[in-house]
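I'll show an entry:

:::
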Amino acid sequence: MTDKSNKQLSTDPYKGVRDFYPEDQAIQNYIFATWRKAVESFGYNEYNTSILEPAELYRAKSGEEIVNEQTYTFTDRGEREVTLRPEMTPSVARLVAAKKRELSFPLRWYSIQNFFRYERPQRGRVREFWQLNCDMFGVDSTSADVEVIQLAYNIMKSFGARDGDFKIYINNAKLFRENINGKLLDTELFPKAKKLIDSIQKISKEEFDVEWSKISNQQFDRSIAANTEIETILSQLKMLGIENVEYNPILTRGFDYYTGTVFEVYDTNPENRRALFGGGRFDDLLSLFGGEKVPAVGFGMGDVTMRDFLEVRGLLPQFTSPAQLYIVNAGVSAEQLLTRATEIREKGIRVATDLTTRKIGDQIKKAVKDAVEFVVVLGENEITSGEVSIKHLASEKEEKVRIAEIADYIKGF
């Protein structure tokens, strides 16, 4: 028998997932906080669900590619087939359907959760990702579509994006389906046609024409006239000052449950020209759980593409330590150090202490590297006098302050 007890374990994470060191987690926290502030300004309430769902939930409407190629599905110890959620819409539909008679419509709900898809890792795509999901239930007019798209627009602006940095494309899933089905040799070929059209920007015209000729005997036409619903949405958005939006007659979405408006937000930067996120209307999805249909519209915005967008435009925040103050130990006892730190924390200041015996200069370098805002050196002389020199590292401003007044000084700086 081979002894594997001494085998060295890899430090790499599972392929396609990410470790978040403090600097990365700070960016993640910034993205989440910006999302949360923006959606709550529209009155959306937060909810959550388990990451595990019955596999059948996704077979019903998510789409063949998602279910057959991208889900993490397995049989649990109770012989139940379960899936790590690849998206949130079926789950939130299940929640609403379960308590439909108890809920007060319209609903404005959001969540920020993680998801899993077995995809080939590449820029903008990983196997575990976090996503903001925003949905409105109970409004069947175009005003709901307009508000949801306006919310998506406002989120982008909340990150400091300008109108020229992104473009919003809209289409109608029903109009698209009817038009394409009218050109196909058989309507059962629609999923294949949709997938082909979705790849139109990624393959040559010659390749597209060859594949299109296998499913249609008509020439592919990109110019589908917009219907009244699309024109109304465009008009209302422009009345709200949203000018970077336009109709795209060949815009598709990967999920099968869309019934009306669909939209996608695209990055216009040449270094990152791609779809960032999207959504649409899914009025039929709740009927899968029995009962009447409930009109619904929403979108999902992922953290990976959002970070890429911010990075190429220099919009990522600078990393700063959670600690506002770093106390350098210049030879005092651990008890003295921790006592002073506790007194300052009790006054509302976040404090980190250096519990090592290394040189003062090395301790200060640690504070600088961690991007702490203020630093004080605490030695026996400071304990005796009750006074320290406090330094603001960014400006290098340094002043003498009573130890008992450190918290007030930092708050008033």
About this structure: The CA atoms of residues 50 and 306 lie 24 Å apart. The radius of gyration is 27 Å. DSSP finds 14 helices and 16 strands in the chain. The chain has a mean pLDDT of 91.
